[in-house]
Structure formats: structure tokens, C-alpha cells
What we know:
This protein is of the alpha+beta class. The chain has helices at 3-6, 17-26, 42-57, 118-121, 158-165; strands spanning 8-12, 34-35, 66-73, 83-86, 91-93, 103-108, 111-115, 124-130, 141-143, 168-170, 176-180, 186-188, 199-205. It has one domain: Jelly Rolls (Sandwich), CATH 2.60.120. The mean pLDDT is 94.
Amino acid sequence: MNLEDHGYCIVPTTIPDERLNTLRNTLFDESTAGERCLLDNDVVRKIALELKHELSTQNHLLQNAAAIQAIAFNKTAATNWKVAWHQDLMFPFAAKVSTIDFDLPCIKDGIHYARPPESVLKKLLAVRLHLDDCDETNGPLRVSPGTHHIGIIQTREIPDHLARHGETTCLAKKGDALVMRPLTLHASSQATEPKHRRILHFVYFCGEPIGETWHRAI
């Protein structure tokens, strides 16, 4: 699939196995589904920079892109959640937003979040680094190709867009990166055979400075 046309693609990475194993063994707690805002972790920061270099050489990212978010996700028998169809719209900031068109301010785990305007959302790129193989049985991500072109979609409009654009299941091997526009509609089901599905999810901003300060930008 083509990133710009379809809103996602899967890219093999050259992150060494030993680095992937370090992430697997240090970022995840069996009893929780994940952890937000990990860009203060030295290993995570290094991976963010390595991924930026790889993706910029493949023309998915600009050289001056900044990682503004990192989240660890895991799906196990104890944390076998499902996620309804949605777009990723809320992102972390250093303080409560006050600039026009930055909406829905809230606080999660002591950090300020808000919805940036569509012009900013279109310049974000999510990169989901798979730390385990992800097959049909352990709740893979499903995407609706091309929906990132629509803009911000109201919840009531989602069924119509899914009927029009359809959906695709995204399978991946350990070390693969699923690269996706956050405005692409996506969802995931509960695993039918729960096992680790550890993912380190980065978001990069590829644009000029905005009217607010990201919580982190590296």
C-alpha cells in the first residue's frame, strides 16, 4: 500500500534484535495495556531518532521531523482490549492550549492534551514499531484505506465512510513498522488467541512551528 494514497504502509526496519528485546523487556508491565509519554526514556529517544533517519531516507518523513509522542501498547490475555473505529486526534502539550483552533483541552496522567487543527493533524505521522510478530489471532490493527483524505470525521459519519472505503487488516513481523496517517480510520478487535502484541507507537510532526509547545519534541 502507498502511504499518501492509502494512509498507511508497512516498512521493514533495521533496528537490531537486541535493541528490540531491550524494549520488550523494559517498557512493558504484564498487568497494564500500555504507557504514555515515553520520550524521556533514553532508549526510546534513540529508537525515535533511528526510525526518523530510516523513514526520511525512504521519503516518508522530512529530515527536520520531530518525535512528539511515544506510547507502549501491549495486548495479552490480561489486557485483551478492543478499540472501536476512530482517528487519533488528541496529542500532548507542555501546557494548557490557548491558541485558536486547538480544541478539547484535557489532562491525562498529569499531562495536557488537546486536538490540534486539521492543518496540523495532516502533518503528523504515526509509526508503530512491532516488537512481536502480529498475526490474525492477536488483535491486529485494521485500517480503512484513504480515509485520511477526508479530514476530521464525526462519529456518526464513520459507518458511511467504512462502507465506502472498506477495511484492511495489518499483519506485521517483529521489527516491522506500520506507518500511518493519524487521520486514517483504524480499529482493533480482541485477540482470539491472546499473546504478546507489544508495540512502541511514535508520532512525528513534519511541519513548521505551531502556536503551541509540544510536551516533548526530539
